[in-house]
Design brief:
Layout (H helix, E strand, L loop, with lengths): L1 H7 L3 H24 L18 H9 L4 E7 L2 E6 L1 E6 L2 E6 L13 E3 L9 E3 L15 E2 L4 H26 L9 H21 L8 H19 L13 H17 L3 H8 L14 H45 L1 H44 L6
Antiparallel strand pairs: 1-2, 3-4, 3-7, 5-6
Helix pairs in contact: 1-2, 3-9, 4-6, 5-6, 5-10, 6-10, 7-9, 7-10, 9-10
């Protein structure tokens, strides 16, 4: 890349730019490898071999947790311990997740389940600290988990970016070619408006839905991009969390039915042009339409969750493959490493495209649902 820039442009500024980009790409790649590599260092003087628990690394990354693991220094675990907030039997409990010691200890008869249907969640245990309490009541868990903190960070980032972009447009007396942040965001905003909102909803009805469509698009897109960054504040599989995608789908569902006009409800309960025996006395078509109203957001939820989770698992599987084979045979590890690194570079660039594509698909289908909720009377 540097040679091409010199030969084509001969510009030192361009060469320095490409050098910084190459250095950043190499740093991100090796940080990615280091972050999900070996659980402990192995020096040349150590004869014993270790086994890398690839499954644990992948599952720990994909699933949510009560702490944010940053890195290891020898045997020391460096993490951000998040607040645990619980309501149990009319009592309020607030303490640091450090007291649970990665699920190996109990605090005030609360512990993180290591197995069973509640694995990874806080449960009530007996005084021995490991046996679940069979008579425990339901626990209301409002803890700030890793995913919740990542959502806060992404939301704050979005607010800061768009406040700054909006301030630049308000200061401009006349429209001119955008520079800086507006240069990046304006084409995307115009794309959402012209190729999603107007296309799916209509040129005379899309305005009221634009704030939501832009918010959900950039929320998914920025969280997807942050998920590719292997170090804090990135690396969290936010859009691969079923709870997050469920909430986004519910926002689309309630927005659709809040703004729905009478034509939408008429088509749902008394669809015109359909034979009467499909509507009365057995309401076959109304039941199908009502079921479809709930299936649509369900498909949005599953599509985003499955695609983003699968992408993270593939990247982590290829990364851990290097160290798994290296623990078996150094020759095998060195032989597979170049191929795995090439695939990782390709997949990371592909994930950038997928990050945009998943945000686009979710926003487009939401816009289609809005368009079907506000049809014209003549439709």
């Amino acid at each position: 890349m540097i040679i091409v820039s010199v030969s084509l442009y001969g510009d030192r500024k361009m060469v320095r730019h490409h050098c910084r980009m190459c250095l950043l790409a190499v740093m991100l790649l090796f940080t990615h490898l280091a972050a999900y590599g070996a659980e402990r260092d192995v020096t040349a003087g150590q004869a014993e071999k270790y086994e890398l628990d690839a499954r644990k690394i992948i599952v720990d990354h994909v699933l949510d947790s009560y702490e944010w693991h940053l890195f290891d220094i020898g045997d020391r675990n460096v993490s951000i311990y998040l607040p645990v907030i619980l309501f149990y039997e009319n009592g309020f409990y607030l303490f640091s997740s450090k007291r649970l010691a990665h699920g190996t200890k109990a605090y005030k008869n609360f512990a993180i389940a290591q197995e069973g249907p509640h694995k990874g969640r806080i449960i009530r245990v007996l005084d021995d600290g490991s046996t679940p309490d069979p008579h425990a009541s339901y626990i209301v868990d409002l803890s700030i988990t890793k995913t919740v903190l990542a959502v806060f960070i992404a939301s704050l980032l979005i607010c800061l970016l768009f406040v700054k972009v909006g301030a630049k447009y308000r200061k401009a007396e006349t429209y001119h070619t955008p520079r800086g942040l507006p240069l990046f965001f304006e084409p995307i905003i115009m794309f959402v408006r012209d190729h999603i909102a107007i296309l799916a909803i209509g040129p005379d009805r899309y305005h009221r839905f634009m704030p939501y469509l832009l918010t959900v698009f950039f929320f998914i897109f920025i969280n997807n991009l942050l998920g590719l960054v292997p170090f804090f504040p990135g690396g969290v599989n936010v859009t691969g969390n079923i709870s997050v995608t469920f909430v986004l789908a519910m926002f689309t569902f309630f927005t659709t039915h809040w703004y729905a006009n009478k034509s939408y409800w008429k088509h749902m309960f008394n669809m015109p042009g359909v034979p009467a025996f499909l509507k009365f006395p057995i309401p076959v078509m109304p039941v199908i339409e009502i079921a479809g109203a709930f299936i649509k957001p369900f498909t949005l939820m599953i599509r985003l969750f499955a695609n983003m989770t699968a992408g993270h698992m593939v990247i982590l599987s290829l990364t851990t493959l290097i160290f798994v084979l290296g623990s078996v045979s150094m020759v095998m590890g060195y032989s597979i490493s170049p191929l795995a690194v090439l695939f990782l570079v390709f997949l990371n660039f592909l994930k950038i495209l997928v990050s945009f594509l998943q945000a686009y698909i979710f926003t487009l289908f939401s816009a289609f649902f809005f368009g079907m909720a506000v049809p014209k009377e003549s439709h």
